[in-house]
Design a protein that fits this description.
Helices cover about 5% and strands about 30% of the residues. With about 750 residues, it is mainly beta. About 0% of the residues have low confidence.
């Protein structure tokens, strides 16, 4: 069922019907989120069809009375008088980096199985303090080789006020925001504070969080689950079990945020992020190549092993809880992760022949944020009380009607007359963005794209509008504000419209039109998130000359010509999936699924093994969209790939996506051919649509690297977490084509 929000001039009767429908549907959302009913239960009750869709019925018994479940529109989100561009955009909140000795208990290679009492609402008894699966299979790989040089702690927690905001820039570079003032969790000063049950973020606060790391210095991220033990205290959606995926980290599966390796309230999980270059054990193993390097903290470089062509820059991390990823990420489980290197140092002054000197600042040896700005884009929706709301029944893709940047409704950002770097993340559930820059007259302005996903491009590309940006894609751009006068205003504009022309409804399956700048700014689109969403205000000249650069050559792609292709695999993404397993712990129901190498389109089961490429090999994967009515941004965990062709031809691959990538927009009815390698680490990983509504319903599969030796025999046992401990069971199904 597609979703549309009522127009502002809808009749009161129509608004009452829509509000009643929203409340009725919220009843079933609540029951599902509490775990009191399952998808299978709803099918038996006649509320869901066998394909996992909301049945076309007139009532929602047994939860509600006779109110219609089929009202196609919801009330528009109330804004309580909030106006666009009336609040400053907050910079990200940087999480502290501390010595490993700050952690109690101390981290260790295998999961800490020290027992603690388990709350009666979680079944009582005793369970381990750490939710990581135990034993050698889930031990941190090469722990003694990559002893963490820094630790970062955060707690997933209900909404509260931020009294420890640390943007790591002066107030003058943060649009005048005073970090010493408490920052309530609200999306605009005119909007209500969010209830503790409505929003669950890192440390329970806004702005979104940022972790900074550099190559050669492993990070230990201790993630505490501080969510309510009572699953009913969730505001009607979201799950209190979590699994943290560092997207697209090059490390072992035990630290990948596997969808079935989730943990419970009062537990923690130690994620070991070694921060190494891909090819660590096969390329530049003696660390003699100065291009493969990291800031040493004193203006120099420390060489590191691996292939410098694999250097990464802009990551993020988010929840990956099985069947609840969309709800949990939407609810606030999303943060960003900047990785610094000799090439992408975060200090624009140092000219050593390696540093690209991209816009950043120069006060610190590395990781300056003065002119390097993270932007998290996401659409949201609010109920009549102004609390965050979600509709689980839109299996095509949930869309909100309120645009946010860094969890602020349509803010402004003050800039100096110089170059800025912006790391743009699409953190929506299902919405694609197409970003352009307009001056005050609505005339398109140039943008220089320097990165796509976590990686800098081989060469920058100057554009007047970016590609459509799928969910989870990151586009790094540079804007040169020296071309404008003090007092000028410019805007980032979204051109991607999700209105389905056949139904005239807001539809999460794909963007149905990429508007011109004039059309997007006309105010005529029925899509509430089309148009201006972030205002830049040019307020002053920089205090010192801008010495940053955008070099003509950045990071060339790795040369794969001498690496043989061990295998070609085909993955078909489509609807009408079937479920061939019945394990209530690992399987999901839903209309979406994936077919592997000519097999049936199957719904997700993380106990099923769909592919097992051999360690040390390179493969070619064809990702195929079986329908023209939808798009899928497909994410393959573990290692970046290179797109070899779109629809059979390299000529169809735009220059701005010819670098390394980890999310691949298939486009309606399209095919992407990519190549990737399987090296350095082992374990089980995932491949899925990053329209997280599709992922949860149930377009996800498990694959693993077959190392052929202990502890990574193939297939690996499947973890089944409980508050009292994690048990393992044999895979539910191993596809004949997997091995």
């Amino acid at each position: 069922m597609s979703r549309i929000y009522l127009p502002w001039n809808a009749s009161k009767a129509r608004q009452r019907d829509a509000e009643r429908a929203r409340q009725n549907r919220a009843e079933i959302v609540r029951e599902l989120s509490w775990g009191r009913v399952s998808r299978r239960d709803l099918i038996k009750m006649g509320l869901f069809t066998g394909a996992g869709m909301l049945a076309p019925i007139g009532g929602l018994n047994p939860f509600v009375g006779s109110a219609s479940a089929d009202v196609p529109a919801f009330p528009r989100s109330p804004l309580f008088g909030a106006k666009p561009f009336a609040q400053p955009m907050p910079r990200f909140d940087v999480l502290a980096r501390n010595p490993l000795s700050c952690l109690t208990p101390s981290p260790q290679a295998q999961a800490n199985e020290t027992l603690m009492p388990v709350d009666s609402m979680l079944g009582g008894g005793f369970g381990p303090v750490e939710g990581r699966p135990p034993g050698p299979v889930w031990a941190h790989q090469r722990w003694s080789e990559y002893v963490p040089g820094a630790c970062v702690e955060a707690t997933q927690a209900p909404a509260t006020t931020n009294y420890r905001y640390n943007p790591q820039v002066a107030s003058s570079l943060n649009s005048g925001i005073d970090p010493t003032h408490g920052m309530p969790l609200r999306f605009h000063p005119k909007l209500p504070n969010q209830n503790p049950s409505s929003v669950w973020t890192f440390d329970g606060t806004i702005p979104p969080k940022l972790v900074q790391a550099r190559y050669g210095e492993p990070i230990l991220f201790r993630h505490h689950n501080g969510l309510p033990v009572d699953v009913r205290q969730n505001g009607g959606f979201g799950r209190h079990t979590i699994s943290t995926h560092e997207h697209n980290g090059h490390h072992g599966a035990e630290n990948d945020g596997f969808t079935g390796a989730f943990f419970f309230p009062n537990q923690y999980y130690d994620y070991h992020w070694p921060v190494v270059l891909a090819g660590h054990y096969s390329v530049n193993t003696a660390a003699t190549d100065r291009m493969a390097s990291s800031p040493d903290g004193s203006g120099g470089l420390t060489n590191v092993p691996g292939d410098w062509h694999e250097t990464m820059s802009s990551h993020w991390f988010h929840d990956h809880m099985f069947s609840f990823t969309a709800q949990n990420v939407y609810k606030g489980n999303a943060a960003m992760f900047n990785i610094y290197s000799g090439l992408d140092r975060g200090n624009e002054d140092i000219d050593d022949g390696v540093n690209l000197r991209l816009p950043s600042g120069s006060a610190k040896d590395w990781g300056n944020l003065d002119y390097d700005v993270n932007l998290m884009l996401a659409d949201k929706a609010f109920d009549r009380d102004g609390q965050l709301t979600f509709d689980i029944f839109n299996f095509d893709g949930f869309l909100g009607d309120v645009m946010t940047t860094n969890l602020a409704y349509n803010p402004y950002f003050e800039v100096e007359r110089r170059k800025y770097r912006f790391r743009i993340l699409n953190a929506a559930v299902a919405r694609f963005f197409k970003v352009a820059l307009a001056n005050a007259s609505g005339v398109p302005q140039p943008i220089i794209q320097i990165g796509n996903d976590g990686n800098l491009l081989p060469s920058p590309v100057t554009l007047f509008e970016l590609d459509e940006q799928g969910i989870a894609e990151r586009y790094d751009i540079v804007i040169d504000f020296s071309n404008y006068a003090i007092g000028d205003k410019l805007h980032l504009v979204n051109l991607a419209e999700h209105i389905n022309p056949e139904t005239a409804t807001l539809d999460g399956r794909k963007p149905f039109a990429d508007l011109t700048m004039a059309a997007a700014l006309s105010g005529n689109s029925a899509d509430p998130c089309v148009g201006r969403f972030l205002e830049f205000r040019v307020v002053r000249n920089p205090a010192k000359p801008d010495v940053s650069r955008v070099p003509a050559v950045m990071i060339p792609n790795p040369d794969l010509s001498q690496i043989p292709v061990a295998r070609v695999r085909n993955f078909v993404f489509g609807r009408d999936a079937i479920q061939t397993t019945s394990d209530p712990n690992t399987s999901a129901m839903g209309p979406w699924g994936i077919g592997t190498d000519g097999g049936l389109t199957k719904a997700a089961d993380y106990g099923r093994l769909s592919a097992a490429p051999r360690f040390g090999t390179r493969e070619v994967w064809n990702l195929i969209n079986d329908g023209a009515g939808w798009d899928h941004p497909i994410h393959i965990h573990f290692e970046e790939g290179q797109i070899l062709a779109r629809n059979g031809s390299l000529a169809n691959v735009r220059m701005q996506e010819r670098g390394r990538k980890d999310v691949y927009r298939l486009q309606p009815g399209g095919t992407v051919t990519l190549t990737m390698q399987f090296r350095d680490w082992g374990g089980m990983f995932m491949e899925h649509c990053h329209n997280t509504t599709h992922e949860d319903n149930a377009m996800l599969l498990r694959w693993e690297i077959n190392q052929g030796s202990e502890p990574f025999l193939s297939p690996l046992p499947t973890p089944i977490p409980t508050p009292q401990g994690v048990r393992f069971q044999s895979p539910d199904e191993v596809l004949p084509t997997a091995l």
